[in-house]
Amino acid sequence: MDALTIGQLGRATDTKIETIRYFEKIGLLPAPRRTAGNYRSYAAEHLQRLGFIRRTRDLGFTIEQVRELLKLAAHGEKPCEEVDQLVVRHLEVTERKIAALTRLRRELRETLDSCQGGRIAECRVIQALSPPTAARKKRVLGSRT
Known about the structure:
Layout: H1 6-13, H2 17-25, E1 33-34, E2 40-41, H3 44-58, H4 63-73, H5 81-113, H6 124-129, H7 134-144
Antiparallel strand pairs: 1-2
């Protein structure tokens, strides 16, 4: 494979040039060799590694998790137990986020369903989004006891 410019690498991986430079700066992507004109010149390894980084980021892994996965991937002879543990933890976090988003969706739908048109002064959506007044707080807190 011929050397790639930063623009070609970006197009091949659907990655912005600024993001590629950032990944280089933080050490996720090794610095490429430079041409005589001081332009970056990327090799197949960069393309593969950036593809890996993009895929892990698309799956919601943090930069530190990506860094750890890259470190683990460099040791192909080792058992994949550490990778599995990292993915299990990420899956647990993802499932908690999904549960929270599901609750949020339900609350927003219920709030919207309670809206019966009319004037904004009586709008259930605005009321539900507004911080409780002292009287409303007292009613809500009083009903819990």
